[in-house]
């Protein structure tokens, strides 16, 4: 087998292996906690940091070997074997080590998502290696560099898991979810204000058409008006629904208070989630419950907006009550500090809960 054929075979084999890794990667909150871990297992975030750093170094070498002339399949084969047979299995091992019952569902999901990103980009990178090997020439420099850059970004995501830590990840996620709620508030405000159409102009048009002798034209216009009416709620709050306008104001007020809760939880609880606190399983479980509630709220807010667009007042009341209840559950969950003691935030939560209800 020639050196080019050897490289082609390796690239194809590793591409199939990475595809298998990718297919097996899925969040598994109910992973079997009875699986025996090795004694004194390494920190999975450290394993991911080290393997991602090494993969970046290997792919840097590979990129240079792929774009520079003369093309040397033997050198590429050697580096590619090191990259795929050491770094990638290490990442998969780290996923196994990051068990939800030990590290929490929230962190487990973050790890799986970022390892999946690396594996996806690795498949693309191996395609570049394969194309170059099959042509036995360096003709894909732009594509190779682009593919390498995206893979580096995915590796950086894994490295940042360790530097950011579980508390930092929770803070970033809470801010992202809070921004989502803010977007919903702004969309509802725009819906309340409408699209700026002048109803008087429409009335004048109606008068003009009422004097028309063309009955067919009138019928077509009536059909168009009916069609427009069907979709008017998607553009603006109808002026003949003061009940919805009042509900919209109440909703905006409560959603803003929920935003304040996100900010307060971030400052008083998430940013104080130290490694010592994370070492206690009860705190990991509490964080998981919290992040689940914080994630559910923006999803409910989307449903709330749709209820407004559908002009369904009863559904608005139901979903808003659910949003407030979930927010109060999140607040109550963290009413005391991570050691179960009252502090300034405890008093704030009591006051906030009475106001938002």
TrEMBL record:
| Cellular component GO terms, alphabetical | nucleus
List all membrane-crossing ranges: none
Task: Give a single Pfam family match.
Answer: GCIP_N
Skewed-composition ranges (Basic and acidic residues): 208-222
Record's superkingdom? Eukaryota
Where in this protein does the record put region Disordered?
190-226
Instruction: List where Acidic residues composition bias occurs.
Output: 192-207
Q: Which residues form the Cyclin-D1-binding protein 1-like N-terminal domain?
A: 48-193
Protein name from the UniProt record: Cyclin-D1-binding protein 1-like N-terminal domain-containing protein
